[in-house]
Amino acid sequence: MPPLCRNSRAILAAFLVFWLFGVSSPALAGSKDLDWNALPAASLTENGQARIIVGFAVADYDELAAASRSHKVVTPEEAGQSRTAALAADAALAGAMRRGADAMLAELPAKAYTVHRTYSALPYAALSVTPEGLAALRDNPKVTSIEVDEAVPLPLPVTEKRAKSGEAEPESALTDQPASNLNWGPPKIGADTAWARGYTGQGWHVAILDTGIRRTHEFFAGKTIVEACFSADRNCPGGTTTAYGTGSAAHYSSSLTGWDHGTHCAGIATGKKADGSVAGVAKDANLIAVQVFSIFTSSGDVRSYSSDQLAGLNYVYSLRNTYSIAAASMSLGGGSYSSACDSDSRKTAIDNLRSVNIATTIAAGNDYSCSGIGGPACISTSIAVGSSTSSDTESGFSNWYPGMVTIFAPGSSIYSSTGDSDTSYASWNGTSMATPHVAGAWALLRQNRPNDSVSAILTRLLAGSPSVSTTCPSGGSRPRVFIPAALQATASLPLLPLLLGQ
After folding, report:
1. Topology classification of domain 36-150
2. Which is the most buried residue in 381, 385, 469, 474, by most CB within 10 A?
3. What's the whole-model pTM score?
4. Per the residue annotation, which of 248, 417, 427, 432 is the catalytic one?
5. Is 382 designated active site?
């Protein structure tokens, strides 16, 4: 592999304009041409209806959405202050969403649909429909897009040792534990340097959209934990589709594959052991745990519907007036995309968060692929995260396609909390582990510069971090997150002294 190097202007040139100016008004991109016969079997409900997400026209949407998005996420210094104007703007937008949904639904045949979710800041509705209902939606001039609402499994931690070529990988590829520190990820990305300078994530929150958490784990002791659950199959506490409050994001039974995935990811982003021996990246940050998975008994695992992810992202947006949220982390998804999937309804939600200075970090996937990354990481305004090793090589399992991965982060043999007990830990491998490293880094950098935009932070990370090269035949490299390169003491402080440790 080539030696580490700082990224040159040439590396940035292909990406800088996009990341600085990539966010625009949420576009209702997509198609209305979804055909019943093309629906995947997994989208069909027990009563023969199909789960879909419908975009619809909203009167004065651009103006109302812009007014809402003009109120950025509250900083710790602003916490507790009146946000009357922001709440009023959000309420006006929510009212318009209700009216738009009602107008669209009013033109559908009776008994041809069931409403599962609407969203306060997103012009979409999650429905299940009959063939007649789908045909009516396609003919409805108020409908702007129709997409399948299909549940996808987790990108589970990798255990198989092989390279992208199919050949056996060295043992180090999945046993990447420097003897001096099992918890190698945070130091590798310079979190310890940030801590020494006083940046520990204090006052900030990281949202983890995942399988829920074991909130009583010692790794989360003393933290404020905000919880919510969105489960299309009514697996939230009390057998509901939606729940809020303490215990609502509790993980499922250990009999289900992937059950404590969220506990591991949350620990990577924000965990801290009382004795200081193990810590996540933003060790003093708080948590917003959002459970977005449903139980699939037939396969013995948990899966997440796009409509529930939309609900989780919408919920995080609604909390920005109360909590200082640095990032939303999504170690989930699937499929293979070699170009931006911006017709996805989740782009609108990600754009909403980005417009108020909240980054959305998403796992690129663990399929050993050189031909594409998973969705929703393929959304152009997300931060698509690939996995790297302690020696700054690409993890063999990490998905890749030129121009699709935003940044690398440690993802091989990452040590963090698990759900087995309040004191259990384990090392896992995956882009799921890399993604919360980046979300935690965002909390440190927001503490450093509370009013910075997502683009400003990303630009500094891309400019100052070492690069990791892919092992794919296409070649190419992307930066590996390195927090000290992006720290700035003042708005005008140049990068060079910080890179030299001055």
Report:
1. Alpha-Beta Plaits (3.30.70)
2. 385
3. 0.89
4. 432
5. no
